Amino acid sequence: MIKVLFVCHGNICRSPMAEFVMKKLVSDARLTARFQIVSAATSTEEIWNGIGNPVYPPAKAELARHGISCEGKRARQVTRADYAEYDYLIGMDGANIRNMLRIFGGDPEGKVAKLLSYAGSERDISDPWYTGDFGTTYDDVLEGCTAFLEYLQQNSKIDT
């Protein structure tokens, strides 16, 4: 099983978008049983009294426009233990990567990457919390997730 953790700052916009876009791509490819896909935050800003906030309504609406549900998703913070648990720890921007490396205490196994690096770009996925542009964020997430799935298929990471 391939275990993937998508990470952003608050786990209410970009990383849940990546989580559910990737789940859709994997489902469409009939590979669901071969994956565990989740998302988390580097901060605790969206977690109150131990309960995470749901996906931000405009992010949820953007996913719904593409026929993707994220119902029931709640923010959670990434932990040091996640490094051992997951095969791929994928951040949305450079700040996420720096924070992940701090939380994990490094990346000795080379598991940490930026999502768009799988599409051959070191570009960050802009945070729609600040830009208000959920459509562009969705397009970037789709590009990154599609390239990530292709990477896994081309590099024999998925038993067919």
Descriptive labels:
160 residues; alpha/beta; Rossmann fold; 4-stranded parallel beta sheet; two-stranded antiparallel ribbon; 6 strands; LMW_PTPase; protein tyrosine phosphatase activity
Could you provide a short overview of the structure?
This is protein-tyrosine-phosphatase. The protein has 6 helices and 6 strands.
Task: Give the class from helix and strand content and strand pairing.
Answer: alpha/beta
CATH homology group:
Response regulator
* CATH fold-type name: Rossmann fold
- Number of helices in the DSSP assignment: 6
- What is the total domain count? 1
**Which architecture name does CATH use?**
3-Layer(aba) Sandwich
Query: From the alpha-carbon coordinates, what is the Rg to the nearest angstrom?
Result: 14 Å
Biggest beta sheet attributes:
4 strands, parallel
- Average pLDDT across residues? 95
- Intertermini distance: 12 Å
Main sheet strand line-up: 2-1-5-6
Low-confidence stretches: none
The shape, in one word, is: globular
Number of strands: 6
The CATH class, by name, is Alpha Beta
Percent strand equals 15-25%
Query: What is the helix/strand order?
Result: EHEEEHHEHEHH
Estimate percent helicity: 40-55%
